[in-house]
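FAQ: What does a multi-protein file look like?

Like this. Sequence, then tokens, then the next protein.
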Amino acid sequence: MSTAMNFSSKAFQPRPPEKGAFPLDHFGECKVFKEKFMKCLRDNSFDNSQCRLQSKDYLECRMDHQLMAKEPLEKLGFKDLMDPPPPSPADKDTKP
């Protein structure tokens, strides 16, 4: 009796993960932002909560240069660092 498992004869086609893997910044387009982020991490004993603004700036640069997929910053955990939307005319108080 054979203990080998028979798998489908189809060749495995690997695909990259949707999130978590990004193209390398070969041209250094976001190097300044990366260096600011890394310096912040070193200066704060690698406590990334102290470097959220630098992280946001770095990710924005990567998205702007197509080094990662565009995502709303709120979805990436930066909702509290976003500028509030301007008030709409309906939100303004009307005076009698």
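And here is the next protein:
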Amino acid sequence: MLSLDEGKMAVSLARNTITEFLENGTKLDPDSVSLTTVFEEERGVFVTLSMKGDLRGCIGHPYPDSSLKDAIVDSAISASTRDPRFPPVKPEEMHLITVEVTVLTPPEKIDAAPAYLPDLIEIGRHGLIVKQGFYQGLLLPQVAPEQGFDAMEFLNHTCIKAGLAPDAWLTGAEVYWFEGQVFSEDSPEGQVVEKQF
């Protein structure tokens, strides 16, 4: 688990990375920033950008495939410039954008019969990944409480995100869960808080 101070470092690293990339076209070197040793650990992470309450970009590393600091830098640039759902963020938008960083636990396959999955999933605690063949979709733990989903709706929407039928979790798709620590600005460029659901 990260401390609140480390969460503030994570959000600051994400925001500064985006600003540097949008204004200068250069990638921030995370080694130039004062960080704690947790940022050297391999962790999954997502960077989420919101503007006026609406999603403006969200990309990350579901698996712990690189150091937390490198994953934040990569995810921050991707969320601001490579999310196919949105045009790239413009530098002048950054003062309107709220930056959120979610640090993930490694995903684990849920070892249970499909019919039992809705009873096992805790809304606000678990994020989900659904996989079938080449299809894969992920929803972060905060999505279900923010959207008012129950566990079955959360499973259905993760399948839809993967490009599968909503009930694919009942018909053979693999379901994985993970947890996340969510650190977010409470307003654009505002105080960083740890969100609880």
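Q: Is there any per-entry metadata?
A: Some entries carry free-text notes. For the entry above: The two ends are 16 Å apart (CA to CA).
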